[in-house]
């Protein structure tokens, strides 16, 4: 402790002695603790402050303080300070501080470092619905919807995945059959169960883990009806809880023609991808060229098909692969050596080692 500080401390002790003698018993109970507090504060200040000249105009840093009252502020006037004290709301007489040399102000604390930013949120993606637990067989959720029983202009079979109805949007797979399964949409609707996804579902060969809503549509005639397909899409998107970014078309033979025809007339529309099997997309390519690639395509065909020659799939896919990517989407072509018209059974049941369902689920608008 400096000599100046020791001198100030001695003066404070003498002031304390005078205050104790002059105060009544009652006053001493109030003032003594406060005075002691002031002394302790003065001692601390004297130990930590450097000696500095007093300000000429008296407006400098606080002097070594007088007796400060609780919550009292120290004011500096002419180099000396006057303490104020308060106890239980009543003001006591503060002990006048001896004149002291002003101490220099303490060094300001360094600012705290800013908090680190939060981690980036994960990119948006398809909705993750609750996992399947103890689901019933697929066929139990496969329902005939004859023409006239819904607002659709066609009859169809409806398959709903396990858990549907929980307000979690599902991907939509629309299946178009071959010409042998066309019908009136009522008493001929079971023709749809001969091939493709509706066959697998009705035989309980469709895994419950596949999350698609599957709508198998029966047209009365023709293989090219883009506007009918578009109307059915409008119906389905309004009726079912569907993820609009995961809408897919697939079809075999005549249904493959229908799938190609739709994206040829509605490129970049509501469909994310198509899987045409033994179809023909040459007219669609001729009509719009590279714009046909605004949807992802995986075509399948037997290279010995005498009914619909493989050029129906090979020509449009080969041409599309030469288009710039982007903007075109993924284009795939799988040919089966020596296979004739039925290239769909091995594709839909996965026995050829290809999995168009998993591929579709990886494609979004």
Ordered list of secondary-structure elements with their pairings:
Layout lengths: L2 H20 L2 H24 L26 E3 L2 E3 L2 E3 L2 E3 L49 E4 L9 E5 L10 E7 L19 H7 L10 E6 L7 H14 L2 E11 L1 H12 L7 E5 L4 H7 L7 E7 L8 H11 L9 E6 L8 H4 L7 H6 L4
Parallel strand pairs: 7-8, 7-9, 9-10, 10-11, 11-12
Antiparallel strand pairs: 1-2, 3-4, 5-6, 6-8
Overview of the molecule:
With 365 residues, the protein is α/β, with parallel strands linked by helices. It is 29% helix and 17% strand. The protein contains nine helices and twelve strands. Helix 1 packs antiparallel against helix 2 and helix 4 crosses helix 5 (254-265). It is globular. The protein starts with a helix and ends with a helix. The relative contact order is 0.08. Mean pLDDT is 77; it is low at 4-9 and 19-124.
Compact overview of the structure:
The protein is α/β, with parallel strands linked by helices and 365 residues long. The chain has nine helices and twelve strands.
Question: How many strand elements?
Answer: 12
Shape: globular
Arithmetic mean pLDDT: 77
| Major β-sheet annotation | 8 strands, mixed
Low-confidence stretches: 4-9, 19-124
Radius of gyration: 44 Å
Specify the number of helices.
9
Q: What letter string, H or E per element, gives the SSE order?
A: HHEEEEEEEHEHEHEHEHEHH
Percent helix among the residues?
25-40%
Please identify the structural class as seen in this structure: alpha/beta
Query: How do the strands of the widest beta sheet line up side by side?
Result: 5-6-8-7-9-10-11-12
Question: What share of the residues does DSSP label as strand, in percent?
Answer: 15-25%
Q: What's the end-to-end separation, in Å?
A: 79 Å
């Amino acid at each position: 402790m400096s000599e100046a500080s020791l001198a100030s401390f001695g003066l404070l002790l003498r002031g304390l002695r005078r205050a104790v003698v002059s105060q009544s018993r009652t006053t001493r109970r109030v003032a003594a603790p406060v005075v002691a507090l002031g002394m302790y504060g003065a001692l601390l200040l004297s130990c930590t402050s450097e000696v500095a000249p007093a300000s000429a105009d008296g407006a400098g840093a606080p002097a070594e303080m007088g007796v400060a009252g609780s919550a009292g502020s120290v004011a500096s006037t002419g180099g000396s300070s006057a303490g104020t004290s308060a106890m239980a709301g009543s003001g006591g007489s503060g002990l006048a501080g001896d004149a002291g040399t002003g101490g220099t102000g303490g060094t300001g604390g360094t600012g705290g470092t800013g908090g680190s930013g939060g981690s980036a949120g994960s990119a948006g993606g398809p909705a993750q619905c609750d996992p399947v637990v103890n689901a019933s067989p697929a066929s139990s959720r496969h329902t005939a919807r004859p023409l006239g029983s819904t607002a659709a202009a066609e009859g169809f079979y409806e398959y709903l995945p396990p858990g549907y109805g929980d307000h979690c949007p599902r991907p939509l797979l629309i299946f178009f059959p071959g010409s042998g399964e066309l019908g009136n949409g009522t008493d001929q609707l079971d023709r749809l169960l001969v091939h493709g996804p509706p066959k697998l579902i009705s035989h309980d060969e469709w895994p419950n883990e596949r999350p698609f809503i599957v709508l198998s549509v029966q047209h009365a005639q023709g293989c090219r009806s883009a506007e009918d397909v578009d109307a059915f899409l409008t119906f389905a998107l309004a009726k079912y809880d569907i993820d609009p970014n995961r809408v897919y078309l697939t079809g075999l033979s005549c249904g493959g023609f229908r799938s190609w025809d739709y994206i040829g007339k509605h490129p970049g529309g509501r469909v994310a991808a198509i899987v045409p099997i033994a179809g023909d997309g040459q007219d669609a390519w001729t009509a719009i060229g590279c714009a046909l690639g605004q949807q992802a395509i995986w075509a399948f065909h037997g290279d010995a098909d005498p009914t619909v020659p493989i050029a129906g799939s090979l020509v449009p896919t080969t041409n599309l692969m030469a288009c710039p990517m982007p903007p075109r989407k993924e284009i795939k072509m799988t040919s089966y050596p020596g296979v004739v018209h039925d290239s769909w059974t091995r594709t839909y049941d996965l026995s050829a080692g290809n999995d168009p369902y998993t591929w579709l689920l990886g494609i979004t608008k």
